[in-house]
Design a protein that fits this description.
Strand content: 15-25%
Helix content: 25-40%
Radius of gyration: 25 Å
Bound molecules: fructose -6-phosphate
Strand order of the largest sheet: 3-2-4-1-10-9-11-14
Number of strands: 26
Largest sheet: 8 strands, antiparallel
Shape: globular
Number of helices: 18
């Protein structure tokens, strides 16, 4: 999704803006632009494409020189990616950048056209620039407040006014925005990595707060124009966490960070060998009070929820519904008092997941957020909170965040099963100890990744493939399939192995490779029968299977072995080869692995 940055200080603003925007590239974008005060005039340069295209544009149009400005990476929503639709956009007195969606922009545009304003772009953003200009009467904050009252939707804005050459203004409603504070300089940004190279101190803007940044002061106002004091936060990530550290791509680095991410996420939540979730507000009493559990999320986070469902139902015998957030929010879900709704989100800002959380609360359900980004909207609004400690995830394709989402799902399931008396303390300790051992298992696997590379090489020319599995292996194959399609652009589906015969098997031919996941001993032979069925119809079969499960050699073409652990915990190590297959297939196809086309890291629009 769009990224916003802004700078006020003594440094060369264009350099700072481009540097900071490059740290937001992971969010996904299709055009970029900056506006910088040069000799008292606002100079705008923007271009369709990547930041390199913007730099090339500056070679011809001139590189703005100044100390105050705003910048943007755009992920197109209203109007195609083009030079003219790129941000910044301007009104008579105002130039701004915007993240989010203005839902009533058509109505506002009609009004402004009636007032004689002319528009250059198809964007909702230009409407905001014109609207703030319309209200501007010498006081920028007043104009921003007035305009914001007319605007419906979710947004964050970075704004400069022609008359205030040493100041930038910012407003946040739903879309995230932080204000970085350095020595005699300040910043705005959509996310912390954008400012980390300059400062680790920042304010988190709350909805409807307005920031006014000049070199020597940072003021924040509420929507009634009252100055407010805010707590200055310090980012606990350092630059290393946001750098590639010698890996070719962030995705590969993040796959390798998984053992540490699991350890950091679970360590403080285990006491005397048992799960201890009290610091997250989760007590035995609360756990016993829940009738039904809903897990609501999007994409990969939703797939972590599917693993959670299998594990919770198996161990704690509590019914769990997993829902796609964009479906849940509009299907009038039967959820309310006595229910627990778990929202899983890496970014904590996904629009549909946030809306689902609010709906659950309105209906009287208790909510638990499993979130990676500290201080994000979902983290702040949920009744209970379990942070995952994966550190910044920069690659668009989620890997380590999924891993730690599963890790906390396990801890939660163990605690719930214990609270419900479905497992004994000894059984629970055994499961916890198995979970604590997983980082070492994964580290061992990451020492030898040749088989995954070989599997990727065998898929590189495929047009389409299927992932199959049963039970937890089916849950895992959903994630394997999504990972592959999003970064390799090869069509793929995941199927419950037993469901193939009911239609999909007609697709099987020598042109349809199948990746079969077999890690659950009690279901293994059933899946093996399904594998034999696809093999008999010509499919090239890649088998991902636990070391102790035996499969006839003529049933597959290539076997990737996953070390044995408790079958319940197998999704954690078994997802690693699936992530690596997706990664290397994308690399071999020459794709932009970390920034796949059309995708955004933080999906703040529905
Ligand atoms: C895929 C991926 C997405 C996200 C989804 C939810 O690799 O990363 O499917 O999982 O957009 O995002 P969060 O977790 O930020 O709510």
């Amino acid at each position: 999704m769009c990224g916003i940055v802004g700078y006020v200080g003594k440094q060369n603003c264009t350099d700072v803006l481009i540097n900071s925007l490059s740290r937001l590239e992971y969010r996904g974008y299709d055009s970029a632009g900056i506006a910088v005060f040069e000799n008292g005039e606002i100079k705008v340069v923007k271009s369709k494409g990547r930041l390199t295209d913007l730099s090339a544009r500056m070679e011809t149009e001139g590189r703005p020189s100044g100390n105050v400005g705003i910048g943007h990476t755009r992920w197109a929503t209203h109007g195609e990616p083009s030079d003219v639709n790129s941000h910044p956009h301007s009104g008579a007195d105002v130039t701004l950048v915007h993240n989010g969606i203005i839902e009533n922009y058509k109505k506002l545009k009609e009004f402004l056209i009636r007032e004689g304003k002319e528009f250059k772009s198809e964007t909702d953003t230009e409407v905001v620039a014109q609207l703030i200009s319309y209200y501007y009467n010498g006081d920028p904050v007043e104009a921003i407040i007035k305009a914001s009252k007319d605007i419906e939707g979710s947004f964050a804005l970075g704004v400069v006014f022609r008359d205030f050459t040493d100041t930038i203004f910012a407003l946040r409603r739903e879309s995230p925005l932080i204000v970085g504070v350095g020595e005699d300089e300040s910043f705005i940004a959509s996310d912390v990595p954008a400012i980390l190279q300059y400062t680790r101190n920042y304010y988190l803007l709350e909805p409807n707060e307005i920031a006014v940044l000049s070199p020597y002061s940072t003021k924040i106002y509420d929507q009634h124009y009252q100055a407010i004091e805010k707590e200055l936060k310090t980012a606990d990530w350092d630059m290393d966490a946001a750098e590639k550290q010698g890996y070719e791509h962030f995705m590969l680095k993040e796959i390798h960070e998984q053992p540490t991410a699991i350890k950091t996420t679970i360590a403080s939540r285990i006491t005397d060998g048992l799960p201890d979730l009290e610091e997250c507000g989760i007590t035995c009493e609360k756990l016993n009070s829940f009738r039904n559990i809903f897990i609501v999320a999007c994409g990969t986070a939703m797939h972590a929820g599917v693993v959670g469902k299998y594990v919770i139902e198996k161990l704690a015998r509590v019914p769990v519904v997993v829902d796609i957030a964009s479906e849940f929010r509009y299907r009038e879900p039967i959820v309310g008092d006595g229910d627990l709704v778990i929202i899983i989100s890496q970014s904590g800002e996904t629009a549909d997941s946030l809306a689902a959380l609010r709906l659950a609360k309105e209906n009287g359900a208790k909510t638990l957020a499993i979130v990676n980004a500290k201080g994000s909207s979902i983290a702040r609004e949920a009744d209970m909170l379990m942070y995952t400690h994966a550190g910044p995830e920069i690659a668009v394709a989620s890997t380590k965040a999924y891993m730690v989402q599963i890790a906390v799902m396990y801890l939660f399931a163990f605690e719930l099963a214990l609270a419900k008396g479905k497992i004994s303390e000894d059984e629970c300790k055994k499961l916890v100890s198995g979970l604590q051992n997983i980082p070492d298992v994964i580290s061992g696997m990451l020492e030898d990744i040749d088989d995954s590379q070989y599997a990727a090489a065998s898929l590189v020319n495929a047009d389409s493939l299927l992932y199959i599995g049963r039970g937890l292996d089916y849950a895992l194959s959903m994630e394997g399939s999504l990972k592959l399609k999003e970064i390799s652009y090869i069509h793929s589906e995941s199927y419950a192995a037993g469901e193939l015969k009911h239609g999909t098997i007609s697709l099987i031919s020598e042109n349809m490779p199948v990746i079969a996941v077999v890690t659950q001993p009690e279901l293994a032979q059933k899946t093996v029968s399904n594998i034999k069925e696809v093999k008999a119809r010509g499919a090239y079969v890649i088998l991902v299977c636990s070391a102790s499960i035996t499969v006839d050699e003529d049933a597959y073409d290539l076997k990737l072995v996953v070390p044995d652990t408790d079958p319940l915990l197998m999704p954690m190590p078994a997802v690693v080869p699936l992530q690596l297959i997706a990664y290397y297939t994308s690399v071999l196809r020459g794709n932009d692995v970390d920034k796949p086309r059309n995708l955004a890291k933080s999906v703040t629009v529905e």
